[in-house]
Amino acid sequence: MTDSTPTLFTRIINRDIPAQILYEDDQCIVINDIAPQAPVHMLVIPRKPIPRLVDATAEDKAVLGHLMWVAGEVARTAGVDEAFRLVVNNGADAGQTVFHLHLHVLASKDGTQQFTEAQL
To answer: Is residue 2 part of a domain?
Structure first.
């Protein structure tokens, strides 16, 4: 997949579109999802525009690991580190709507909500 048009997430990273950035570093940003599927629904987005997980190369291994680490850190900061889901949609048929790799961090605020595979 190659498309030179900046994605929604690239435009957010470049500050062309406003968003409440919850965390950022030199490799990624974290924002709240604008259409949350859970009480806590954050998106961990790499600055590098990788369209889908399967488009990542061996050179992307470090950033992929960093995204996982950041997901744990923001879950801890949000107070949901004892129970959260991490979801990556790969492709339109899997529910991916923005073709810029991102991780969904989903949780309840009080730790009581349980998710089934069918809900995600």
So the answer is: no
Q: What is the CATH number of the domain that holds 86?
A: 3.30.428.10
Predicted TM-score of the model (pTM): 0.88
Q: What is the pLDDT of residue 120?
A: 40
Residue located via tokens 């050179």: 59
Which domain does 30 fall in, by range? 8-119
Q: How many domains does the chain have?
A: 1
Supply φ then ψ for residue 3, to 5 degrees: -150, 125
Helix (H, G, I), strand (E, B) or coil at 9: helix
Residue among 46, 45, 53, 107 nearest 80 (CA): 107
**Cβ contact 87:119 at 8 Å:** no
- Pick the catalytic residue from 41, 100, 102, 104: 102
104 is catalytic: no
Distances (CA, A) of 67 to 3, 74, 90, 95: 23, 10, 16, 20
SS3 label, residue 104: strand
Mean pLDDT of 3-32: 94
Q: Has residue 1 been placed in a domain?
A: no
